[in-house]
Amino acid sequence: MDLGLKDRVYVVTGGSRGLGNASARQLVADGAKVVITGRDEKTVADAAAGLGPDAVGLAVDNADPEGAGRLIAAARAHFGRFDGVLISVGGPAPGFVADTTDAQWQSAFESVFLGAVRLARTAAAELSDGGVIGFVLSGSVHEPIAGLTISNGLRPGLAGFAKSLSDELGPRGIRVVGVLPSRIDTDRVRELDALSGDPEAARAANESRIPLRRYGTPEEFGKVAAFLLSPAASYLTGVMVPVDGGSRHGF
Predict the structure, then answer these.
(1) Are 94 and 41 in contact (CB under 8 A)?
(2) What is the pLDDT at residue 215?
(3) Which residues make Cβ contacts (< 8 Å) with residue 204, sequence separation at least 6?
(4) Residues near 238 by beta carbon (within 8 Å), at least 6 away in sequence
(5) Do the bridges between strand 175-181 and strand 132-136 make them parallel or antiparallel, or are there none, so unpaired?
(6) pLDDT value of residue 122
(7) Helix 149-169 vs helix 115-126: angle between axes, to the nearest 10 degrees?
(8) Is 0.85 surpassed by the pTM of this model?
(9) What's the pLDDT score for residue 176?
(10) b/e sequence 210-246, b meaning 16+ C-beta within 10 Å
(11) How confident is the model over 183-215, as pLDDT tens digits?
């Protein structure tokens, strides 16, 4: 299926590893060009090199107020246009309510929440009809995940912001979508399993609760994200799409 991605240009934050990288890789495979970000300059440069000539890497922290403008300018400078953004940020520190500090909440708010809002707001001002803003959020939007208190607090708020934004931008032909991963086999999820002290047992227990009985692959997630960003999904907006192997209880 031709998704209509050829020569379209996207910014993908958190694109040096994990789900952001998988999404960027699929976009490039389908003909798009990407500007990816990461906090470490060498890591993001290596990731961009691995994606080939249709990718450029910039070391940008989502919490940087100037970062959003730099990324969109880079897309236009390197590739001549800007068609959309996929806002993916690393998960905040794990912990239960009693374990999390004000400093952890503040840091996560600046990066996970406010940084995403700022980037979406900046992108909205620069996009035209056919543009798209995507958010990589979490299954915690619908069901809290034990041990991820900060994420449970911030991700649903971003989903609400995305829905509000979709209502405002719809008349301009700009779409806003969200992707809700659950147990995808990334470094982040393996780190969470390891917190139990027995990662193999934790994984087996988690897989037993997934109807498909396995973790998803980053490639499977990337294909969904690429589709949602593509012109092939031109009538999808204001939606949060679970990529969770059927884990969500309810419709």
Answers:
(1) no
(2) 97
(3) none
(4) 162, 163, 166, 167, 170, 176, 177
(5) parallel
(6) 97
(7) 20
(8) yes
(9) 98
(10) beeeebbebebbbbbbbbbbbebbeebbbebbbbbbe
(11) 999 988 998 888 888 999 999 999 999 999 999
